[in-house]
Write a structure and sequence with these properties.
Length: 624
């Protein structure tokens, strides 16, 4: 059996393992904001296409078109989801509940299968960019990542984005490596689809331009004419990339057919570039003017300086990233001092001065990434950075995998800078695109470790597959330990009292609903929940929110509270004449949300004491 066949069989084993853990979860979960897509946006997109209502394909500012195209493949197998939207907070029959679960299963399955199919795209592209062994290691890390499995089970733009953005980057790097325009065109199409999925993909416009300039810095150009020719061709190709991305957006976004300004709304006027588009567009315009009008006179001087010191540039940048990684571990193991990463990430869009906000968001960014990788991947990720810090001039050849590890590291670093400048904390979901990129870096790092001196003889040749088997084992252990709350995964390197996903997506809601539905007379029960996802799968009546007039006329049988809803509830209860307390009577709110307090039923997410959702009888938490 040849090597290619073995690798394909291993990828199928990855997919089979992923299906074993993921498939049973498809119907048994309700995620935050997923109702917006399942009941409204996805059916609205296809309904608009059917009626020729092109304006109706403008779903939201995401814009979410790519997600709607993929998820909508499940619509023919279910009734109109709009008929079930009104049932979220009402009593339901078992038949209605079963149909709601079928709706979710049918709309999630195409997204899930799309993510599994993408593993082959990752493998064949990475094989061309790096090597078949590194590509295989990367696909195993990606395909068996608990967090990436978790996001793939949700009808959410991030379930598609984590695939399109990294594949765009990989395709562009192959184009640079081979000077093959087929991959430039592929990158342009993928970029357009990525932007149609979520505006965050606009980040690639400036980053890919930076890669053009970095390619110049790391290449050897003997003559001035070679330098001028290289920059002209590279910038012309970059404009072709932009044109293809814009054409892709126009073709697949019918709303733009009747209102071309939608193309601007999805690009330079989108939230991703809203604060920075004058700077980004201005920089691109200046570079183009210099390249095409001044024969790169200014740009060459700047880039030649960095090219002369390229080893130092790589080492300093890598050392800075290594320092940030070390700080995350030191700060975490010292009890989150001076930075409480959990507090920062629990409120990723705070209202505070930029001068205070930027460092908090930036320094906390690596925390969910490092502890969201399985331990071996995290160690290999750090090893790749160490190799870069120790890089030698002979290692800067374009085909060396370390150079691509540097490119991928810069992607993560610049992504964090972009989030921080936009006043957004890099939570698990807000940086989901970094997990496959980190997996690729880890694969490069692990490959380097396997070729290192004393361990070299243990991992080359046929013994390489022993390493593959070992990764499978520890990945399956990680998936088993966090099952079914894959998005809440945190590695064993993280102390038990901390957690990575501070903005959960509704974990534990289905389990809570299932418990409530098993109670005698469940259809007659009235509950209040700080997670509306509980309501959708509960057969009785359910209330959420804090408006006094909506709550005061009900006698609640149970209160459902969670770690994710704690902050808002405590804020309400601390207000004078709290609507929360006046509606429920005299209660002890601190006691209600105590992680180790009384409960009739409780789910600890990822076995974390501080991450919970529980069912409480109001009488048990009344004030003394």
């Amino acid at each position: 059996m040849n090597k290619k066949t073995i690798h394909i069989l291993i990828i199928f084993a990855v997919i089979t393992t992923n299906l074993f853990f993921g498939l049973p979860r498809l119907a048994r979960y309700t995620a935050v904001d997923e109702t917006l897509w399942s009941y409204d946006r996805v059916p609205k997109f296809w309904r608009s296409i059917e009626k020729g209502n092109w304006r109706g394909t403008n779903l939201c500012d995401k814009p979410g078109v790519t997600l709607a195209m993929v998820s909508g493949l499940g619509l023919p197998f279910i009734p109109d989801p709009r008929d079930y939207e009104k049932l979220q907070f009402q009593s339901k029959t078992p038949e209605q509940l079963a149909m709601i679960e079928k709706i979710y299963f049918s709309l999630r399955l195409p997204v899930y299968l799309f993510t599994l199919a993408s593993l082959f795209a990752f493998y064949f592209l990475l094989k061309r960019l790096l090597s078949d062994d590194i590509a295989l290691l990367a696909v195993i890390f990606i395909g068996l990542s608990p967090i990436l499995l978790g996001i793939s089970l949700i009808v959410n733009t991030d379930a598609i984005l984590w695939i399109l953005m990294p594949l765009t980057l990989i395709s562009f790097l192959i184009y640079q490596k081979e000077d093959n325009r087929k991959f430039l065109y592929l990158a342009g199409v993928l970029l357009g689809l990525g932007i149609l999925d979520k505006f965050v993909a606009n980040f690639l416009f400036p980053f890919l331009l930076a890669l053009v300039l970095l390619k110049y810095v790391l290449s050897d150009h003997a003559q001035t004419e070679d330098k001028v020719r290289f920059l002209k061709k590279s910038m012309a190709d970059y404009l072709i990339l932009i044109a293809i991305a814009l054409v892709t957006i126009f073709i697949f976004y019918p709303s733009a057919w009747i209102k071309p300004k939608e193309i601007l709304n999805t690009t330079i006027y989108s939230m991703a570039l809203r604060k920075m588009w004058p700077l980004v567009m201005g920089a691109i315009a200046l570079i183009l003017a210099d390249v095409f009008l001044l024969r790169s006179a200014i740009l060459r001087k700047i880039l030649d300086f960095f090219s002369t010191h390229r080893i130092l540039l790589i080492r300093l940048a890598s050392l800075a990233i290594l320092g940030m990684v070390a700080f995350v571990f030191v700060n975490t193991y010292s009890g989150m001092k001076p930075y409480d990463f959990q507090e920062i990430l629990s409120n990723p869009k705070p209202d505070m001065p930029f001068v205070n906000e930027f460092p908090l968001n930036f320094f906390s960014a690596f925390f969910p990434l490092l502890f969201g990788l399985i331990p071996l991947a995290a160690i290999a990720f750090i090893a790749a950075i160490v190799f870069l810090v120790k890089i030698r001039p002979s290692d800067t050849l374009p085909e060396n995998s370390l150079i691509y590890a540097f490119y991928f590291l810069l992607f993560i670093l610049v992504f964090y800078l972009g989030n921080s400048v936009s006043s957004i904390g890099s939570t698990v979901r807000y940086q989901i695109v970094n997990y496959p990129v980190a997996a690729i870096i880890a694969a490069i790092g692990l490959s380097g470790m396997a070729k290192f001196g004393p361990v070299k003889k243990y991992f080359l040749g046929i013994k390489f597959y022993l390493l593959v088997g070992f990764i499978f084992i520890i990945s399956i252990i990680s998936l088993t330990q966090t099952k079914p709350f894959f998005l809440a995964y945190s590695s064993s390197l993280l102390p038990d009292r901390f957690m990575t996903n501070l903005k959960d997506m509704g974990d534990g809601s289905w389990e809570t609903s299932h418990y409530l539905n098993s109670l005698p007379g469940a259809e007659r029960l009235v509950i209040w929940s700080d997670k509306k996802q509980v309501c959708e799968k509960f057969v009785g009546r359910c209330k959420t929110g804090f408006r006094y007039k909506d709550l005061v006329n009900f006698k609640f049988d149970y209160l459902i509270v969670s770690a994710g809803g704690k902050a808002e509830t405590l804020s309400r209860s601390s207000q004078r004449k709290s609507t929360f307390e006046s509606a429920f009577g005299p209660i002890n709110v601190e006691k209600l949300y105590a992680p180790d307090g009384y409960s009739d039923f409780k789910v600890n997410i990822d076995d974390k004491l501080e991450d919970f959702i529980k069912v409480v009888n109001p009488a048990t938490i009344s004030n003394d």
